[in-house]
Amino acid sequence: MRTTDKLYYLDQYLYRAEARIATLHAEAIELDRTVAFPEGGGQEADIGTIETPVGAFRFIWTKRLYGTPLSIEGFTGVKSGGVILHLVHPDDIDRLGALEVDMPVTITIDVERRARLTLSHTASHFLYAAALAHQPDLKRLTIGCHIKEEAARFDFLVETPFHADDVGAIQSEANRLMADNLPIITDHLTEHYDARFWQYGDIYIPCGGTHLETPEAVGPLQVRRKNIGKSKERLLCSFDQAHINTDDYHVGTTRHLEVVS
Ligand SMILES: [Zn+2]
């Protein structure tokens, strides 16, 4: 079965790498390996550029398809393998015909966007952990999450809307947790590379996203609520004083990096 090597799991700070075209789709390019993080776990996808022998192609989204479900407790819904598609900008689609399978390419992601998504994703874990600390049954009432560059949110199915006091308590708890500034561990179970988790002190969440190594750069978290329909409440966090840092990002120079698929 065809799989795409996930270089972002090998090293989440890779922003450029050499690859080859694996398959061409009507509106997307599939490579044998990629540094682009596909949409998943609420985190928006990377965007960027694929330079080829016949010119550059912009990609406006990255998505993962197929894969085999893992049968590991706590990781239901997580899949291993799969292929990753880079959705080509509408203005570049008509040039896809000039590409051929096995052509060498260089893929580069928008590193500023990745850094922002990584910070937002990290912040979202503190919002969620604080919400659950305040009201443990929110865990089973969670119906979705969305992690964007400038904010992150969770949606819940609740009988009573959140009160201003709830929001205040959740915001305080999130900021208290982050003030400890403990190391954030992003790793995978020994059983499988795709069984990934986020850990902060004794808070453990299965998660395949990209995260900061400490919460410091997030700065103070602002939490607010919004009603999004009958019995549906949204908690949002933003981080106006965040410090976006791309210094740790670097180029993958070799093709013989360990294969992660
Ligand atoms: Zn995460």
UniProtKB/TrEMBL annotation:
The keyword Metal-binding applies. InterPro entries: Alanyl-tRNA_Editing_Enzymes, Thr/Ala-tRNA-synth_IIc_edit, Transl_B-barrel_sf. It comes from the Bacteria. Coiled coil: none annotated. SUPFAM superfamilies: ThrRS/AlaRS common domain, Translation proteins. Keywords: Metal-binding, Zinc. PANTHER family: ALANYL-TRNA EDITING PROTEIN, ALANYL-TRNA EDITING PROTEIN AARSD1. This is Synthetase.
